[in-house]
Amino acid sequence: KAKRLGGNHYQLYKEEMNTLTPERLALENALHHALERNELELYYQPQIETKTGRIVGMEALIRWNHPEQGVISPGVFIPLAEETGLIIPIGEWVLETACRQNKSWQEAGAPKVRVAVNLSAAQFYQEEIVDKVKSVLETSGLAAECLELEITESIAMHSVDRVIETFRELHKVGIQVSMDDFGTGYSSLSYLKHFPIKRLKIDQSFIRGIPSRADDAAIASSIIVMAHSLGLQVLGEGVETEEQRQFLAERGCDEMQGYLFSKPVPAKQAEELLKKQTVVNN
Ligand code: C2E
Ligand code: MG
Ligand code: MG
Ligand code: MG
């Protein structure tokens, strides 16, 4: 099933990654050992509530500390992991680590926030995904409302009936689901109303053009209006400037995330940000 969902459906592969170059094979081989060699690390990026300026969530973003090549970004190795099936064990590690981390921040006296975890298609469409998530919550002791799963719009639109079913089950457990990179896929708006999701994340490609590009500004504004009329919250991704923040705030965008507030940071630093509940530009 995962195989069928791979390939070009999601445009997840960079073209050059499909060719069997020696570099690619070496990277793939190294990725096989990355987990057991402890080379994977989660960074966390604050999600800010517009009204209060407080951190209400932390998105977990994976990094690969490659012994020779240094830090490799997920844009490079997640497609490789998806292609090789390694995304399943890696994705499980991400989920477990993020939940455990959030619990340990709470135990260290930090304010309660959600931790957001990105799911790949193959992971999300696993038969046993809901059970797996439940069991991670149990093991980590994290409350369901402190976990959010991010699924891209294109993943959600691939197999709508399955998705609605899975979203319903997650919703029953109390887990929040948000739709990532919203506006870049091909959402059928009529399906959107059936999805029991919590929020839409406006893709950063639209935020980037604010305020100078009228089309991007119009799209972002419309997404906010539409989301609110469907009872969904909205988060603006990739907010880098004060102008962008202000534009989104004036239009009632509920939350924001981006370099203006903080880059993704290692777990320890994320804990300090949470404890201070002030975010410095870095
Ligand atoms: P995403 O989930 O849409 O994450 C947002 C990306 O935008 C992150 O890139 C983040 O570092 C970057 N970003 C945040 N604020 C700004 C900003 O103000 N300006 C700019 N230019 N960029 C900003 P990153 O960490 O390289 O991750 C890229 C993508 O890789 C993610 O996109 C997500 O789709 C995927 N990814 C990351 N971690 C995981 C994971 O654990 N599992 C899976 N399946 N995918 C992951
Ligand atoms: Mg995301
Ligand atoms: Mg995104
Ligand atoms: Mg993305």
TrEMBL record:
It comes from the Bacteria. Residues 24-278 form the EAL domain. This is PAS/PAC sensor-containing diguanylate cyclase/phosphodiesterase.
